[in-house]
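Please, structure for the following, as tokens.
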Amino acid sequence: MKSDTVHSEITPSTINGMFWAHLFVTSLAWIGPFLFWWPLMIFAYCMVQLQYKLLNKCIMNEGHALKEENNNTFYHFLLTKMGFRLDKSLVKFVVRKRLNIFLGLFVIIWQVVLGFKPLLF
């Protein structure tokens, strides 16, 4: 018996303009610490976390028909497309509860502690 929280099958998503915008924003979360001043990145990470806390969802998912049910996340969709088989509930927990904290700490360490300047602003 397969659990709905496990990777039993890929969740459908429409590949449209919002999908590509979501991919761009997701990519910025990872490369942003090298490009943008750390307070801007902390603000962005906090806004994403606030969205999860207040709305209990990612608002960009709706734009490309990725349903929030059964622990679906954009990260799980992408990782499954790349061939990874991961537990949906674990991916959702890491993305919604830990990832932005980790990225926030990383940008502070990278720019404030180690002294690297952002490449753009």
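Residues 1-5 have pLDDT under 50 and may be disordered. Helices lie at 17-35, 38-55, 59-62, 74-81, 88-113.
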